């Protein structure tokens, strides 16, 4: 009799345990971005629109490659042409009124200045990207350096 | 030589069996038929289906046109090959078609039969189109894009800045700034503005 009670007790505990686990699985779906289970069909979110308002964005730190504030649809960058350089090249900026690529773009990795854009800076989109109006799926906890300095100064006082 | 002389004699002799009225009318009707047929043939070759009927165009320039704004866009207005490459006005159209006969020659002899051969010739082909559009002040673009109907306030800052200055003053025309609008570009070394 005592043994039977014990088995009954363990069974109840096991069921209780697994059912909590199951509900937790339900609360935290397998795909946290789409918030859905794998066997569930979800409607795809709307395609985000590119931001092309020609307004320069603040840089988050001095060495950040600035974001592209304009449309770049169909701009070719390949062996034959670099459309970006048709406006951002040193010799083109008077006509295009675009900001010149900075001097770092003319430097090779040993710090020598070249006459033309350095091959390592040829593919602009590697570093410079336009933005869309998509809502971030993961919260951004980035803190600007300047805020950290101000905070540290306040704490010292 | 004898048969030629005979032929000419028959051809030159006044008609015995047919009245002058019949001949004039017949000639007139035949003229209409030939003229119509000529223009119909002209129109048939003036479609995108005809242009991309040969693989040189289908596999190169047509493929490249498809992701661009002139193939699919929010307003659903499409530019086809002849819209940009064939003038609307009749005499200009004939002139362009005569030039195109040379392109048919190229087709028969496989001048651009492979992608590599096409790319080799591309700079030359592109330069011809640039020169043509420069000479006619980008007429084909302007058939759809009317400068007077452009609202600069609705354009991007970069577009408005250029259109209200260099374009408005006539100093530059569309093709000066919008090369490669429909296809990939060739090596642009030495081209003004690149």
UniProtKB/TrEMBL annotation, chain B:
Organism: Catenovulum maritimum
Domain named NapC/NirT cytochrome c N-terminal: residues: 14-188
Binding of heme 3, residues: 141, 144-145
Keywords: Cell membrane, Electron transport, Heme, Iron, Membrane, Metal-binding, Transmembrane, Transmembrane helix, Transport
Cofactor: heme
One annotated GO biological process: anaerobic respiration
Residue spans crossing the bilayer: 20-38
Protein name as catalogued: Cytochrome c-type protein
GO molecular function, one term: metal ion binding
Location(s), subcellular: Cell membrane
GO cellular component, one term: plasma membrane
């Amino acid at each position: 009799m005592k043994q039977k009670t014990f088995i009954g007790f363990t069974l109840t505990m096991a069921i209780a345990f697994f059912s909590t686990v199951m509900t937790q699985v339900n609360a935290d779906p397998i795909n946290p971005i789409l918030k859905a289970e794998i066997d569930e069909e979800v409607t795809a979110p709307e395609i985000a629109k590119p931001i092309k308002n020609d307004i320069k964005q603040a840089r988050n730190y001095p060495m950040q490659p600035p974001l592209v504030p304009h449309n770049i649809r169909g701009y070719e960058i390949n062996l034959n042409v670099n459309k970006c350089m048709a406006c951002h090249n040193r010799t083109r900026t008077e006509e295009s009124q675009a900001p010149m690529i900075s001097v770092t773009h003319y430097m090779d990795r040993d710090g020598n200045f070249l006459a033309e854009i350095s091959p390592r800076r040829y593919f602009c989109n590697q570093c410079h990207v336009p933005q869309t109006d998509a809502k971030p799926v993961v919260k951004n906890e980035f803190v600007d350096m300047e805020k950290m300095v101000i905070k540290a100064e306040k704490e010292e006082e | 030589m004898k048969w030629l002389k005979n032929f000419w004699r028959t051809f030159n002799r006044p008609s015995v069996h047919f009245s002058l009225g019949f001949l004039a009318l017949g000639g007139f009707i035949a003229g209409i038929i030939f003229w119509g047929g000529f223009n119909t043939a002209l129109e048939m070759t003036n479609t995108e289906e005809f242009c991309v009927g040969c693989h040189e165009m289908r596999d190169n320039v047509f493929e490249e046109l498809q992701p661009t704004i002139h193939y699919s866009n929010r307003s659903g207005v499409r530019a086809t090959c002849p819209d940009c490459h064939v003038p609307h006005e009749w005499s200009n159209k004939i002139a362009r078609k005569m030039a195109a006969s040379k392109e048919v020659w190229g087709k028969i002899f496989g001048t651009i039969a492979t992608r590599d051969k096409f790319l080799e010739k591309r700079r030359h082909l592109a330069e011809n189109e640039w020169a043509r559009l420069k000479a006619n002040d980008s007429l084909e673009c302007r058939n759809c894009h009317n400068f007077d109907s452009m609202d600069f306030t609705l354009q991007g800052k970069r577009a408005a800045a250029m259109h209200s200055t260099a374009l408005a003053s006539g100093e530059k025309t569309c093709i000066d700034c919008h090369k490669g609008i429909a296809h990939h570009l060739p090596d642009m070394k030495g081209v003004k503005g690149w």
